[in-house]
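Worked example 3 (structure in, sequence out).
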């Protein structure tokens, strides 16, 4: 099994698959409703100038996520 990285740790342009989501049940539900589901391909498009928020590409959609929240999403890089 490959190494897991927090979404917040990925470099611009990095791609991978979501492997795990941590946090409260409410947080997990909210983030899954946004499309962050285990096994989904994800690309870190860019980080805002001060590092927050992050812009990701998910299932053909561009989504902004707070850095704080991105620390609970674990990705296996391609």
């Amino acid at each position: 099994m490959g190494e897991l990285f927090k979404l917040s740790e990925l470099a611009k342009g990095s791609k991978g698959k979501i492997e795990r989501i941590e946090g409260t049940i409410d947080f997990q539900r909210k983030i899954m409703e946004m499309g962050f589901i285990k096994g989904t391909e994800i690309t870190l498009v860019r980080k805002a100038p001060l590092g927050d928020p992050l812009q990701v590409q998910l299932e053909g959609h561009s989504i902004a996520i707070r850095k704080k929240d991105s620390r609970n999403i674990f990705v296996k890089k391609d």
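Notes: The chain is about 15% helix and 40% strand. Helices lie at 25-33, 67-70.
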